[in-house]
Structure formats: C-alpha cells, structure tokens
Amino acid sequence: MGREFKGQAFISKPSKIVYKDFDLGKTRVQTIQLTNVSFSFNSFKLIPLNEKIRDFFDITYTPPGRMSAGMSCPIRIKFKPEVDEDIFDYFPILSATGEIRIPIECTCKKAIVTALDHTIDFGKVIEGEDKTLNFCLTNSGALETDMWLKSLKGVVLHSKEETSSYVSSYKARSMKKGSRKSGTRD
Questions:
Q1: Theoretical Cys-Cys bridge with 112: which of 51, 93, 141, 163, CB 3.0 to 4.6 Å?
Q2: What is the pLDDT of residues 31-71, one digit of tens each?
Q3: Residues 144-180, buried b or exposed e (16+ Cβ, 10 A)?
Q4: What burial letters (b/e) apply to 108-118, b meaning 16+ CB within 10 Å?
C-alpha cells in the first residue's frame, strides 16, 4: 500500500503573480511553473478568471495531459491593464485534489508620502524672532507628487508655489519655514 497524499497536488513558482507599479496600456509578461507535488500522476485544468479582470489577461500554455510526480508545466501570463485600479484576485486551477488558487496582485503607481514627524513644534518664539526647523518628506511610491504643508486649522504654510522642489520617488527633500507655531502634513 502506497502513501496517501493530502493537500494541493500542484504548487506554483512563484507562489504569487505580481505586477507592481504598472502603466496603463503597457503589456507585462510573467511565466509561472506549475509543478505536480503529489505522489503519483495528476493533471490540471485552467478555470476562467473572474469576469471583472478576464479582459486584462492573456494566458497561454501547452496542456501537458497526465503529469508524473515532480513534472512541471510553464504557464505564460500576459497582463495589459486598461484601468488605473489595483487588482487583488486569484488564478484558479482545477486538479483531481480540488481547486488551487494562485494569488494575483496588480498595483498601479502610487505616491506614498511619509514624514518622520507629523507635527512641527517651534516651541516658544518671541515676536520678531525667526526659528527654522527641518521637515523631511519621503515618497516611497513610484508616482511623483506635489506637496503642501498645512497648519492644524488647514491654512497652507508651504505650498507648491513657494518651492521648486517636489517629492520624488528617488530623493527626500527638506523644507524650511520660519516663525510658525505648528503644522501638520495632510
């Protein structure tokens, strides 16, 4: 009597299909390897993708038929985004042991601006005195963005027009402002 297999009969390498920081209309291609990890012959069948995302993907492969243990099959997935929205779904595959869902993550470019300190406190400042503090913003995203520094009451303290610098995904810029009590980034 042989060993009994429990679990998913196939694994994917990579285990997740990721298209990060995509551009609209630009096609990106990724190939996954689907490997039979069961103890015997097995086969699989591709199930259609979710109707909402189906038109953005083109999947090509040569159906391998019955695969012995340890055999792999390449599956080529072409992604052509037509909307500027993130996609979090799965790539469904049916095998003799059940459905396998390989996660799909497609993320559009975003500006992800962060600050070390969200509040600038100038402390006690006497009228007529100037005080300068540095405030550093960093954009870890792939999309450039404009920035504004506002007070707690929403008054713009430092705007796009007052600076020639911008927050880019490659550099962190610092800003200086004189004799203001406090401010936060919106």
A1: 141
A2: 999 999 988 899 999 999 999 999 999 999 999 989 999 99
A3: eeebebeeeeeeebbeeeeeeeebebeeebebebeeb
A4: beebeeebeee
CB 28 within 8 A of CB 114: no
Intra-chain end-to-end CA distance of the chain, in Å: 67
In the β-sheet with 72-79, what is the strand arrangement from edge to edge? 10-13, 28-36, 72-79, 57-60
* Concatenated DSSP letters of 103-149: EEEEEE----EEES-SEEE--S--TT---EEEEEEEE-SSS-B---E
Q: What is the mean pLDDT of the chain?
A: 81
pTM summary value: 0.70
CB half-sphere exposure, 178, CA atoms < 13 A: 6
Q: What is the pLDDT of residue 132?
A: 82
DSSP percent split of the chain into helix, strand, coil, nearest 5? 5, 45, 50
DSSP 3-state assignment of 93? strand
**What are the sequence ranges of the domains in the chain?**
10-108, 113-185
The size of the chain, in residues, is 186
- Look at domain 10-108 and name its CATH class: mainly beta
